[in-house]
Fold this protein.
Amino acid sequence: MEPLKNIYDLQFIAKLEDSITEHFPAFNKEEFHTRLFETDWETLALKERMRQITLSLAPVLPQDYRKAIDILRKCAPSFTGLGGIIFPDFVEQYGLEDWEFSVEALAFFTEFSTSEFAVRPFLISNQKLMLAKMDEWAVSENEHVRRLASEGCRPRLPWGLSVPALKKDPEPVLAILEKLKEDDSLYVRKSVANNLNDISRIKPDLAVEIAQSWYGDSQKTNWIVKHACRSLLKKGDPRVLQIFGYENSDSLNIEGFTITPSKLSIGESLAFSFTLISEIETPHKVRVEYAVDYVKANGTRSKKVFHLSELEWRGSMKKGFVKNHSFRDLTTRKHYPGFHRILVIVNGVEKADLEFELVRA
């Protein structure tokens, strides 16, 4: 799989140089090129390459910040997608002292890529003022600007600069989410859900309260609440399970739980199967998950929950499940030898578990 950082390849750089030259004929391509590659480019990660482009552009664009931004605004429409974050990054790096002009530039650039990362220093420097601007963005006619209102103020934005005040108290963002919870754009509603999921990991009681008040308002808010509560669902929070009707776990049981093999090497896969039996005679909903209790490097265990199925049954039923789970090392997970555990979870309750041994290949 091609590394994400390679969106900034030589073809991208050449296109950027040509675009800037078109709108700023005095642009010195040679100097820009030299500055850009004076570091070991191949070792730089995605956002490091982004920042290196920003730092290399600054000396060869007009030293008047507003003039430089005017040139970049003309180039930005040709650079859609993630690669276009170089333009808001220039604003982040050089525009904090020109607040109003820079914030408007971020709203413009986000229409072609995203300004969610670049807006974070502005949020840190003046949270009250920036949230007021985001509140305005929440009613923009452009879905990308509305999404920026939600995504930019996420308390735990992946890859984004941490905003300690919001990680401590996310309540100031709620007014923005309220404005966007019925948004026509799924792109925006996904951001609202992700923001609320962040809140659920900081203040679960607050997130549950919002979920309870939103659920049932419309199909749009129902989708947001379900997506936003994914972390709490995996934790088996009974309040959230109740919202979605995943109850009556006492009458839901597991039979014939088996795993094969009971001893395997790192890199191999484990197969497991079981039968879920419901003794409930009335219509009911069932959420089926499994968890792996992984052995960590220090010998302790860490449980990760995986979704299997969601069912709506009219009465008593039984259903068999078969699943393979890989123990191949990934960039996001490294496996360690030792005795692991696999569990079956039904409506948030652990119903069965078995132990197996993972050994080095």
